[in-house]
Amino acid sequence: MADVVQTPHADAGSIPMHRKGQASLVQRVWRAKRYYLYLVPIFALLAVFSYYPPLMALYYSFTNYDGLRGKFIGLENFTDLASDRIFLASIKNAVILLFANMVTGLIPPLLVAELLFSLRSQRMGDFYRTAFLIPTLVPAIVIILTWRYIYHARYGLINNVLTAVGLDFLTHDWLGSFDTALAALVFFSFPWINATIMLILLAALIDIPRELIDAFRLDSSSTLQRIRHVDLPYIVGAIRLVIVLNVIGTLQGFNLQFAMTGGGPGSATMVPAFHMYSQAFFSSRFGYGSAIGTLLFLVIVGLTVMTRRYLRSGIEYEA
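Given the sequence above, the corresponding structure tokens read:
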């Protein structure tokens, strides 16, 4: 009898592992299909209101769109930016405001967070946190208009105080002068205690392992040394977040300029975001405004990536 040669057949147990994983994933998705369908309306709304506008702005940045019709012009809008004096001046102002906001938006909240972190009484800590949060309930435009009144050349608080103490020669049109308008915006909201940023930093401090702080106190009783060697290295993640928020807020925001100076006098307080807004809605140059917005987006992404890449700590703590 001739020998029967049996060829190996693949059975159910010999399915490759990667196929098993794929089949298992498909089966899990299929079993939970009802819940994925619940997410469809949310993603549809995101597509319409969150993804479609920036994509259309990117397209319009290559056109001379005026709100009704437009023609593709390639990179002409971007090349025009290089010769736009107001845009170049706005970049300079934005850089100054960015560096100023890095200092005023990080150091004062960090100092307050350290003070609150050092409080022994939980009740007093809760009281001060609440006291710092109360001003955030006031609409931002109210605070801006209040400071506009403080800076007023004739009725403002600053000039009236200077006159009352015999220093009337120092009175100035703070928002109407080329020399002081931008500095007045930097000094805005003194003493620069942002409650949200302060709470972010305070939460990071509270998250530091208590045994590390206790161990350091056995070697040194210096609070400054503890802040330098323990606190700061372990809250690098929170500091990085604050820096990114400051970058985004400074480069995207223009409500301060819009409500206080209108970008003036001249272009002394103009910023790219306000120039983008004025070109689009005052001059009907939506394509040109979209080009400015696209450039701002790329700059913000670049600065964010640089912050994440270069601002690191070898002992950064992650909960």
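Residues 132 and 213 are 26 Å apart (CA to CA). Try to locate this feature in the token string yourself.
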